[in-house]
Amino acid sequence: MSILSFDDRDGFIWVNGEMIPWREAKTHVLSHAMHYGSLVFEGERMYGGNIFKSREHSERLHKSAEILGFELPVSVDELEKIKYDVCKANELTDCYVRAFAWRGGEQMGVSARGTKIHVGVAAWAWGAYFDAEKRNKGITLKTADWCKPQPDSAPTQSKAAGLYMICTISKHKVEDEGFDDALMLDYRGYIAEATAANFFAIKDGVLITPTPDCFLNGITRQTVIEIAKGLDIPVEVRHIKPDELGSFEEIFVTGTAAEVTAVGQIDDNHYSVGPITKKLRAAYEALVRV
Description:
Structural class: alpha+beta
Strand content: 25-35%
Order of helices and strands: EEHEEHHEEHEHEEEEHEEEEH
Low-confidence stretches: none
Distance between the termini: 35 Å
Number of strands: 15
Radius of gyration: 19 Å
C-alpha cells in the first residue's frame, strides 16, 4: 500500500501569516530547529467542525515556547482563528490539527538570539491511531530501555520536538520485536507513559495514573480524570512501580492521537479490555462530539 508523503499533498498550510499551497510550505535545511530541536508543537483533533479543547492547546503551545525561551508572534486568540481557517481552507470537519513554532536559519550555533520565530498550522484527515482489531483486543507494550529525564535536566513540561527523540528510538525497537508501542519509565524507575500517550491502570475499581512530574500532563489525560470523577470512579494519582503491572485488571493510554486506547499486554502481563476502560472510552467519545 502506498503512503502519501507529507511533503507532497494537496491543500493549504498557514505559515507566518499566509495560507500557502501545501507543497510550498518549506523551511531551510539550516534552520536552528532542525539542528538543535528548537521547535514546539501541538496535536489536536477536530470533531464535527469543533477542535476539542482548542484553547487549552493554544495556551500550551505558548507555554512550551516560553519554557524554550522564545515568544510566539501570534496571540492565543489569533492562533484560535488560524486553526479554524486552516481546516476551512482544506475543507475538513473531522481531522488532526498541528500548530507548531520553530527557530529559523538566521543564526547557526547553540545561541539562537538572532533567529526569527516561525509559526505554522496544518490539518489533515487522520482516523484512529490504532486499527479496529487493536481497539477491541488492546495494544501491546514493552518496557523501553530509555527513560524519561528528570525535570532539571530537560524541559519536561514543554511539548518540544527534541524530547521525542528517545520515544522514536524506543518505539522502533519494540516494533521490531512485534509490539505496538513502548512503555517509558522515568529516571527513578517509575512508570511514566507510552511514547506519545499517558498511562492509566485500574485495580479494585480505582483508576490509577502516574504523577506527571517529569512528563507532560496531557490534555486528554486531564479530561479523562474529569470524566472519571464525574462517573464516581475513584482516581489515584501517584508513582507506580513496574512490579505492580501484574496486579492491574485493566490498562489504557490516552492522548489526542490515541484518544482512549485499551492495552492488552505489557511485557509478559496480559489484560482484558474491561468495563471501566469501555465506560471511559465511550464517555470520552461522546464528549468530544458535543
